[in-house]
Amino acid sequence: MADLYNLDREQVLALEGWAEKSTDALFAALEASKNRPLARILAALGIRGVGTTVAELLVSHYPSIDALATASVEELQAIEGMGPVTAQRVVEWFQRPRHREIIAKLRHAGVRMEEAETRDREARDEQPLAGLTFVITGTLPTMSRNEAKALIEAHGGNVTGSVSAKTSYLLVGESPGSKLRKAESLGVLTIDEATLRQMLEGAGASV
DNA sequence: AGGCCTCGAGATCG
DNA sequence: CTCGAGGCCT
């Protein structure tokens, strides 16, 4: 049998249930996967303590895997939010030969290992949500939770996972979780997606 | 101490 | 997706 990871278009088309449409979709998805945000790659490496948030923090200071891989514990620890434990784990991860091989293989396969470009909106001062912290619960009408998170962050806001006294607004969708009750008990303001969009209007910003 | 993050578990849904 | 436990950071 052929190697699953090296099938070409012809070979896939020969498979039962794989005609033009699904085959094209497969290869398109494969191509697209090589162009993911660097933070996503980083978060997927399995470095203890490095999930999506810390990965983004790292990428904001080190725009390429190579730059990050050569950083020292001291340098990493200088980043606000990075303590000695996580800094050490990052450095140790990149020291392992088998991990370096993984990086090399990904790169060889065409996966982008640098951050494409820097953010835009920040420079234009369109940050109506600066200093505000949001929590999302339930299903929103026109966007996924991730899209909402990206939208909020793109306008300067923060999104966290649990409601606390520091939460500015709870963004509530359909069938909310227990966060709604907690927000009510803490007196945290609740808004819906439409209200969020109105908050964005102020700066003349759109998605 | 308090807040935030990661990550695994179990519910929910298309 | 939501929730909660465990752990890191300030």
Characterization of this structure:
The chain has 207 residues and is of the alpha/beta class. It has two domains: 82 residues, Orthogonal Bundle (DNA polymerase, domain 1), CATH 1.10.150; 74 residues, BRCT domain (Rossmann fold), CATH 3.40.50.10190. Helix content is 48%, strand content 7%. The chain is built from twelve helices and four strands, in the order αααααααααβαββαβα. Strands 2-1-3-4 form a four-stranded parallel β-sheet, with helices on both faces. It is globular. It starts with 8 loop residues before the first helix and ends in a 6-residue tail after the last helix. The mean pLDDT is 84. The protein binds a DNA duplex (14 and 10 nucleotides) through helix 4 and helix 7.
Strand content: 5-15%
What is the CA-atom radius of gyration, in angstroms?
Answer: 21 Å
Low-confidence stretches: none
Head-to-tail CA distance between termini: 47 Å
Give the % helix: 40-55%
CATH architecture classification name of the largest domain: Orthogonal Bundle
Overall mean pLDDT: 84
Count of domain modules: 2
Q: What is the total tally of β strands?
A: 4
CATH T-level topology of the largest domain: DNA polymerase, domain 1
Order of helices and strands: HHHHHHHHHEHEEHEH
Q: Which structural class do the helices and strands define?
A: alpha/beta
Report the CATH C-level class of the largest domain: Mainly Alpha
